[in-house]
Write a structure and sequence with these properties.
Layout lengths: L2 H44 L8 H13 L3 H9 L8 H14 L4 H26 L1 H4 L2 H4 L1 H7 L5 H4 L2 H23 L3 H12 L8 H11 L1 H6 L7 H17 L16 H12 L11 H26 L1 H13 L13 H24 L13 H18 L2 H25 L1 H19 L11 H6 L11 H4 L11 E4 L3 E6 L11 E7 L4 E5 L1 E4 L13 E10 L6 E10 L5 E12 L12
Antiparallel strand pairs: 1-2, 2-6, 3-4, 3-7, 5-6, 7-8
Helix pairs in contact: 2-3, 2-4, 5-10, 5-19, 8-19, 8-20, 10-11, 10-12, 10-18, 11-14, 12-14, 12-18, 15-16, 15-18, 16-18, 16-19, 18-19, 19-20
Length: 599
């Protein structure tokens, strides 16, 4: 074979390898988009432009901001305390949405908050790409488990709640991004900007400052090795900036008037801490989700603390050299042997933030009921911890094991995500029904179909189109359908209602609703359709729900009076029927005492 033929064969072989490499990269990106796209489609199907709880505070901010005659007053409204937080970021996004679209749209707020998950995925992907040469060519494939861990229905409460999405998703992005910039680059100013964003997004964002300071101490020789005449400048800049930001945060800070923390015992506090960290386990269909969450939390703590201790031992000489340099006030003598890997510093800092946030949540919320700690709004930290451990494993496991680690991660994360889409479908549907029925109760305050709304709401937001818009003649008409039997039970807060005969009617707005009618007004309430296990349903969403429902009616949400109870059924084809129950309930009206809020 001639030299020319060998050269031609080598060129053809190189061309084939290049095309195969491009095909693999393209496939990896397609696979990566799948969990994000699935998450987005579910969100688009169930998101509704109706405020929930703290969302009303964002509309009130717009009103108060416009009412202020001076710029000083407007700045005060922007930085005004909200519970224990300074939600400046949330308010900026709210103001921009209102100025751009003319009305505040809570779905837009959800979208911006949910996009923070895309940013967080990008940070983890960058970490994989820069941490291990053997992975850098396949870093998209290795990122697949991270995508499935972040984008799934375990996040349902935050993803469908405007303010919660902005706050709970975004603060994690800003903090992790700050740690990435500090651990992998010398762009400490970008980290500082991310730290500011974290601080003005949520109170736990304050943790970025002490942890970031420790990262800079560990990586100070890196700045010196790059020829900086003032290697202490990043450290001093961080300290001064942190002092200003934290100082401004606590100017005029006061404990919220409605904050009544019930101090838990040390054992309950420990269980609560583990429950927050392991809350992702609720997606697994077991009979004791709290116990499984505590168990997973314990495993995550053992793994995380074990890695930290092991890495401290491995890098003890490098740490000793750092201490020696600090005591001698010099950065001389620094070599690559004394350098702590960026991924180790990144892992330490992210783990400290996650463990610390879980401890704060447990301390503040365990006394109100440990079951509350595995609710969806706190699952972000459990899921991020799982993603962090996976990424650390990819970077540090040997060549023979890392591929199997990736395969195990992909299979496990996909299975977990699929379980979440079944486990939390009922809560997602109920959430949408709860929001739409609440909007009905706010805007229909008489016993006629007339719409009513206060001037502030009309000026700053629009009512969302809802299933009941076409059902008003049925809602306010006579019940012409057969009687449906229900069992009503008086509770301390109102009534619980049970039924065993109403079938499942759909996976969207279709379904059963309770209707309570007095001589003065009418109320709508959502129900929890009964369901069977996902295994009995054969993993088919349409088979998940069965005959019967349960519901709770709170007296505090109704005007005082006696109400006849009806059942409204909505078919997936838009057919509305009103069934009598021959049951009455009595409400004593809203509570006389209202908690004092700082928003």
């Amino acid at each position: 074979m001639t030299t020319q033929q060998l050269t031609s064969n080598n060129t053809q072989r190189a061309g084939l390898l290049l095309r195969a490499s491009r095909w693999q990269r393209g496939l990896a990106w397609v696979l990566l988009v799948i969990p994000v796209l699935l998450f987005g489609l579910i969100w688009y199907a169930y998101a509704v432009n109706i405020p929930k709880w703290d969302d009303h505070a964002l509309r009130a901010f717009l009103y108060n901001y416009d009412k202020e005659p001076t710029w000083a007053g407007k700045i005060y409204q922007l930085f005004r305390q909200h519970n224990e937080h300074r939600i400046v970021y949330d308010r900026i996004v709210t103001a921009l949405d209102y100025r751009l679209f003319g009305k505040l749209n809570y779905v837009h707020l959800m979208l911006v908050g949910n996009l923070s998950l895309v940013g967080l995925l990008a940070v983890f992907m960058a970490t994989l790409r820069r941490s291990r040469a053997g992975v850098s060519g396949q870093w998209v494939f290795y990122s697949l488990p991270v995508a499935w861990l972040l984008f799934n229905l375990s996040q349902w409460e935050n993803m469908f709640w405007g303010m919660a999405a902005l706050q709970n998703f975004s603060v994690v992005l800003w903090v992790v991004a700050a740690f990435y910039f500090l651990s992998y680059t010398t762009h400490w100013k970008l980290a500082f900007l991310a730290g500011v964003l974290a601080t003005i997004t949520s109170g736990n964002g304050l943790m970025v400052w002490p942890i970031g300071f420790l990262i800079l101490l560990l990586r100070l020789p890196v700045y010196a090795s790059q020829g900086n005449r003032t290697p202490l400048a990043p450290l001093l800049g961080w300290l001064i900036g942190a002092a200003v930001v934290v100082g401004l945060y606590f100017v005029g800070f006061a404990k919220p008037g409605d904050a009544k923390y019930v101090k838990p015992g040390i054992i309950d506090l420990g269980k609560g801490w583990l429950a927050v960290l392991g809350a992702a386990a609720e997606a697994v269909p077991v009979s004791a989700p709290l116990r499984s969450s505590i168990l997973l939390g314990g495993l995550l703590v053992l793994a995380t603390v074990g890695i930290i201790i092991w890495s401290l031992v491995v890098h003890r000489f490098a740490l000793g050299k750092r201490v020696q340099n600090l005591l001698s006030r010099t950065t001389k003598g620094h070599t690559s042997a004394h350098e702590i890997p960026s991924v180790t510093v990144f892992f330490w800092s992210c783990a400290a933030f996650i463990l610390g946030t879980a401890a704060v949540v447990a301390w503040a919320r365990t006394g109100a009921g440990i079951d509350l700690l595995i609710t969806s709004r706190y699952k972000m930290y459990s899921l991020t911890a799982l993603a962090l451990l996976y990424v650390y494993g990819v970077v540090n496991l040997n060549e023979r094991v890392v591929c199997w680690w990736m395969i195990t991660g992909i299979v496990g994360s996909v299975l977990f995500a699929m379980l979440s889409y079944f486990s939390f479908l009922d809560e997602t549907i109920w959430w949408r029904h709860w929001l739409t029925t609440n909007q009905f109760n706010w805007t229909h305050t008489t016993n006629t179909p007339a719409f009513s709304s206060d001037s502030v709401s009309q000026n700053y937001s629009l009512p969302s189109p809802a299933f009941y818009d076409k059902a008003l003649p049925v809602l306010y008409g006579s019940a012409g359908q057969p009687v449906v039997n229900v069992q009503t039970t008086k509770t301390n807060s109102g009534y619980s209602v049970h039924n065993t005969t109403i079938p499942a009617l759909g996976l969207g707005d279709a379904g059963a609703y309770l209707l309570a009618r007095s001589g003065k007004r009418t109320y709508l309430f959502p129900v929890w359709q009964k369901q069977q296990s996902i295994f009995t349903a054969r993993f088919a969403p349409g088979n998940l729900f069965v005959h019967g429902f349960e519901a709770s009616i709170l007296s505090a949400e109704m005007e005082a009076g006696t109400y006849q109870l009806f059942i409204l059924t909505v078919s997936d084809k838009g057919k509305y029927d009103l069934h009598p129950t021959n049951q009455t309930i009595v409400s004593s009206g809203p509570l006389a005492t209202e908690t004092v809020k700082n928003w």
